[in-house]
Structure to design on (698 residues):
């Protein structure tokens, strides 16, 4: 049988045995649930118009509330659902209105177009109601001022809600790419979790074969590098299936809940994520595979993988920095460090904040590193596989595999 | 034919193999004997390239062994190991596939060996659900599934009950009879004497005795003497020349003695010393040869 045939047999075993395992099915199910939950659940709470029941005592309040409603719904396309809905309840006395405020029947009380009463002044994450009412009141006054020139209320509102100044940023997301930030952040989280998760599978899979000693039977028939390659290929296929499946389900959920504007998450963003998942997975899989071969007990596996995990965490933090400053120094350096590039480059690419040459150079650098690691990790793996008990030193593993 | 010539392998300061040589013909079964740490496992691993000797040569039918050959060999390592959660049949079929069998051949061979070892109903059980003895049987099946030309088994009998020993012996005999070359290591010398025509004894990394068991026994410079007499045998045995080793168990005295020692005179003196209840004088047992070789 050819080398490729053997690698396929090993990969096939990983796919069928792991793919059927409870661990894989459960992680797939849980990941999909979390992703769909994160997208769908907010729409149950945040979806639909905000409803503001307002109390009115005395005269002149309706005009303010009407203006506030117009301000809140400014910029709607014809036929779109309103963003805010004000309802008005009239009270004869302020005390009655305050009682209704206490019970929560209404959110605010306007008194004689001069005063607004709310239950408490908690600011953080508070409702924009008071702000809308204030601006409503301003626009009523403004309207009174300009009415002699024959301007209608709607024109006043149009001026108040327009953005006459164009915005230019020196760094950070380009205007109109604000959604890119959300996509980049979500993509980064997915990449980070996926690369470490499947990397850990490689790690534990390799150590497991050593701890249950099946490895000696296996490498009496196949070459160590074929075993490692097959394992990485098999777990990689499962990983890509789970990863791209998660993205597809997320996109479908986004499409139906309209949480984001779908065209802004284009095919290039998805392709970008999948390319970097594959590159990131391969580079970390080699390292985790070599690390896993150094120990024979599952308890030791996490320890030996600690340095790699720390590098991935560092890459993750550089990417968080890159989210704010995609052209900054940290992001640029992270682009050219092969172990952090898989986290940093997709974030920069999501913001269109990476020159093509840097993107290409980073891909080539990572691919060269993977090629180099194939030799280095493969040799460490081969040298360490039959050293049972305790933790094999890198140097011993390296020399043990020498011709 | 498997031929191992002058293998040397050092692990740090320890010489695991120090000029190890032996060979096994097709259709023969070689018992590979040696005390713990003598280099048996290292020698067996070097057949599969699992260990690269510092010098020396391992060949199959005169050619150096590569991955293409090892795939046609069957190996049962001293440290048993299978995938604990994988179904027994799938596991054997997978190993068959890795060694180049088609899907159908591998499935048929896995089914055949499970049936042969009385494990047909356990085909869908994970290996970890089997008893220790049954796991050993599956381990042997894993070495046999692709019908290898050479079988290398490291301590295949250790930990087996007498019934399992019998099954294992039958299978090994049958494999040798069908033209396969079989090498196995063991500390159960009686069993080896029963099963093997050929033995190789390794000590401190070098084979010190190799050949046909019958020929080795006849050519050995020692004899195995057992005697039980009424009365005190001490003066009689004390006067015996060429004693290599002696053991007393109750009234029975077992003595390993130089083959050149004059037995007629001794027998005459024994008859004078008291009534003889038991007297045997034979070629040495394999255990005797082993003790002589590694002392």
């Amino acid at each position: 049988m050819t080398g490729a045939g053997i690698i396929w047999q090993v990969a096939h075993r990983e796919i069928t045995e792991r793919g059927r395992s409870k661990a894989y099915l459960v992680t797939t199910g849980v990941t999909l649930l979390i992703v769909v939950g994160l997208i769908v659940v907010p729409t149950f709470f945040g979806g639909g118009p905000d409803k503001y029941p307002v109390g009115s005592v005395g005269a002149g309040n309706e005009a303010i509330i009407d203006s506030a409603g117009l301000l809140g719904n400014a910029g709607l396309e014809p036929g779109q659902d309103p963003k805010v809905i004000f309802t008005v309840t009239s009270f004869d006395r302020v005390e009655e209105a305050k009682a209704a405020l206490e019970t929560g029947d209404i959110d605010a009380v306007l008194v004689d177009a001069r005063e607004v009463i709310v239950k408490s002044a908690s600011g953080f994450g508070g409702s924009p109601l008071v702000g809308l009412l204030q601006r409503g009141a301003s626009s009523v006054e403004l309207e009174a001022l300009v009415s002699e020139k024959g301007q209608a209320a709607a024109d006043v509102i149009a001026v108040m809600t327009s953005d006459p100044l164009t915005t230019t940023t020196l760094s950070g997301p380009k205007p109109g790419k604000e959604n890119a930030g959300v996509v980049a952040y979500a993509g980064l989280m997915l990449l980070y979790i996926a690369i470490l998760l499947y990397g850990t599978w490689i790690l534990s899979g390799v150590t497991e074969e050593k701890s249950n000693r099946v490895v000696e039977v296996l490498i009496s028939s196949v070459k160590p590098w074929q075993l490692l390659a097959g394992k990485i290929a098999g777990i990689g296929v499962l990983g890509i299936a789970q990863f791209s499946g998660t993205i597809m389900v997320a996109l479908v959920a986004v499409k139906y809940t309209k949480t984001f504007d779908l065209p802004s998450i284009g095919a290039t963003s998805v392709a970008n994520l999948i390319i970097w998942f594959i590159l990131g997975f391969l580079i970390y899989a080699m390292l985790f595979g070599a690390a896993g071969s150094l120990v024979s007990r599952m308890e030791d596996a996490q320890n030996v993988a600690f340095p790699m995990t720390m590098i991935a965490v560092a890459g993750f933090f550089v990417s968080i920095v890159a989210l704010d400053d995609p052209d900054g120094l940290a992001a640029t350096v992270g682009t050219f460090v092969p172990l952090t590039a898989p986290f940093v480059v997709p974030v920069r690419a999501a913001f269109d904040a990476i020159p093509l040459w840097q993107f290409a150079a980073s891909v080539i650098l990572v691919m060269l590193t993977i090629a180099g690691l194939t030799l280095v990790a493969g040799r460490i793996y081969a040298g360490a596989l039959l050293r049972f008990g305790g933790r094999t030193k890198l140097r011993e593993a390296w020399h043990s595999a020498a011709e | 034919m498997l031929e191992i010539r002058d293998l040397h392998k050092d692990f740090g300061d320890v010489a695991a193999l120090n000029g190890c040589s032996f060979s096994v013909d097709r259709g023969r079964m070689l018992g590979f004997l040696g005390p713990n740490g003598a280099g048996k496992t290292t020698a067996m691993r070097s057949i599969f390239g699992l260990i690269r000797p510092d010098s020396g040569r391992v060949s199959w039918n005169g050619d150096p062994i590569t991955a293409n050959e090892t795939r046609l060999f069957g190996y049962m390592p001293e440290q048993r190991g299978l995938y604990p959660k994988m179904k027994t049949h799938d596991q054997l079929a997978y190993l068959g596939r890795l060694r180049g069998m088609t899907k159908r051949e591998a499935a048929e061979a896995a089914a055949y060996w499970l049936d042969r070892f009385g494990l047909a109903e356990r085909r869908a059980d994970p290996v970890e659900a089997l008893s220790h003895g049954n796991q050993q049987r599956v381990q042997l099946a894993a070495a046999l599934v692709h019908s290898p030309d050479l079988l290398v088994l490291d301590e295949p009998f250790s930990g087996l009950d007498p019934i399992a020993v019998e099954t294992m012996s039958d299978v090994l005999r049958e494999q040798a009879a069908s033209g396969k070359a079989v090498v196995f290591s063991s500390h159960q010398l009686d069993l080896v004497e029963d099963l093997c025509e050929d033995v190789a004894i390794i000590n401190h990394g070098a084979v010190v005795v190799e050949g046909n068991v019958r020929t080795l026994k006849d050519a050995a410079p020692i004899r195995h003497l057992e005697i039980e007499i009424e009365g005190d045998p001490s003066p009689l045995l004390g006067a015996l020349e060429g004693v290599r080793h002696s053991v007393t168990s109750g009234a029975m005295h077992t003595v390993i003695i130089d083959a050149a020692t004059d037995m007629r005179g001794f027998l005459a003196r024994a008859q004078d010393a008291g009534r003889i209840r038991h007297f045997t004088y034979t070629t040495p047992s394999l255990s005797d040869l082993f003790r002589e070789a590694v002392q």
The longest helix of chain B spans residues 162-177. The two ends of chain B are 30 Å apart (CA to CA). The longest strand of chain B covers residues 14-24. The interface with chain A takes residues 45, 48, 50-52, 67, 70-71, 73, 75-77, 79-86, 94-95, 97-100, 142-143 of chain B (CB under 8 Å).
